[in-house]
Amino acid sequence: MRIALLAHLRHPVAPPFAGGMEAHTWALAEGLTARGHEVVLFAAGDSDPRFAIDPVIPVHHERSFPGLEHRGDAGLKAHVDAGYAAACDRIADGGFDVLHNNSLSRLPLDGLRLAATPTVTSLHVPPYDALRWFVQDSLVPGHRVTVTSEAQRRSWWREAAPAGVSVLHNGVDPASWPYQDRGDGTAVWSGRIAPIKGTHCAVAAARRAGIPLTLFGPVEDQDYWDAQVAPHLGGPIRYGGHLSGAALASEVGRASVFLFTPCWDEPFGLVAIEAMACGVPVAGIAMGAAAEVVGEAGCLAPPDDVIALAAALGQALAIPRTVPHARVMRLFTRDLWLARCEALYAQVRAEHENLV
């Protein structure tokens, strides 16, 4: 198939990844290409040059409009909308068999655009008004919507999801997150360092439990880092930087427990299954999809309860490393995820052909 992938534009789709959306889109482009599809990535122009890039905007907008995401800036909105509108027109005229839309933009959900190209839209966030109503009005033949978890589905549709909506769990390549049969007694945390990711909760719980902790990931919120994370570094709590690829997998895999600390309704939690693939059990906060993703591979604590999270750390250490690894192999591999994507593409193409 000739597949257009439409990405979010805040960060480049390139390692080291700024977050799960970038990692998801990169893995989708890489995996579909490996399975023999012709893939064009519509993304920021400074994304990974190993892919065929059709730039939506010249560079990711965190570079050209730094710090303005979620602030309603009119200039940023006009910049992004113009890029997406032109990209959607190129996709409509480009002879693509299917569009996989990961953009979080309302523009690919316009009825005329959906009529032009069979489309799968993957949602990566809880609902918000700037997107919710466009998504709910877009459920027409030839368009399928996916969420990453049942928990996320319930946040978008409190009752039963309508036809055309399905859960598409994320997946990881076990070869990229290799299993290690023993840990070194320490804890590890990775992700975007921002309040919603709960880095401060991981630090507080590790200190209380007396377990050394290493943090990995990009500092997204400098004020948060300066006030709530950096002052607690030193001794058993350290920051290992923003790593990617084999270096990050090695660091995560050598730990004995992974801290997963969402402080929002986390739609999935890709970092958790990355650690689980390495054999690392999870101690986490029960928000969003955490229980659905972690299952028997970890122990979860209620939100805002550092004492319970510290106790969960100790309990998770007792889980055999074969348990999280087996859960990933059963539910969350890249091959399972890509096969489900291909099945969705076939469905929207068949529906679209019936409309013509």
What does this structure look like?
The chain has 356 residues and is an alpha/beta fold. The chain folds into 2 domains: 2-171 and 333-355, 3-Layer(aba) Sandwich (Rossmann fold), CATH 3.40.50; 187-331, 3-Layer(aba) Sandwich (Rossmann fold), CATH 3.40.50. 40% of the residues lie in helices and 15% in strands. The chain contains 14 helices and 13 strands. A 7-stranded parallel β-sheet has the order 3-2-1-4-5-6-7, sandwiched between helices. Strands 10-9-8-11-12-13 form a 6-stranded parallel β-sheet, with helices on both faces. Helix 7 (199-209) packs across helix 12 and helix 10 (270-277) packs across helix 13 (322-331). The model has no long low-confidence stretch (mean pLDDT 95).
Outline the secondary-structure elements.
Blueprint (H helix, E strand, L loop, with lengths): L1 E5 L13 H15 L3 E6 L8 E4 L5 H4 L9 H19 L5 E4 L9 H6 L2 E4 L6 H8 L6 E5 L2 H7 L8 E3 L19 E4 L8 H11 L3 E4 L5 H8 L7 E3 L5 H9 L3 E4 L9 H8 L4 E4 L4 H5 L3 E4 L4 H11 L5 H10 L2 H22 L1
Parallel strand pairs: 1-2, 1-4, 2-3, 4-5, 5-6, 6-7, 8-9, 8-11, 9-10, 11-12, 12-13
Helix pairs in contact: 7-12, 10-13
Question: End-to-end distance, in Å?
Answer: 19 Å
CATH topology of the largest domain: Rossmann fold
As a percent range, the share of strand residues is: 15-25%
Helix-strand makeup class? alpha/beta
Mean pLDDT: 95
Number of strands: 13
Discrete helix count: 14
Strand ordering within the main sheet = 3-2-1-4-5-6-7
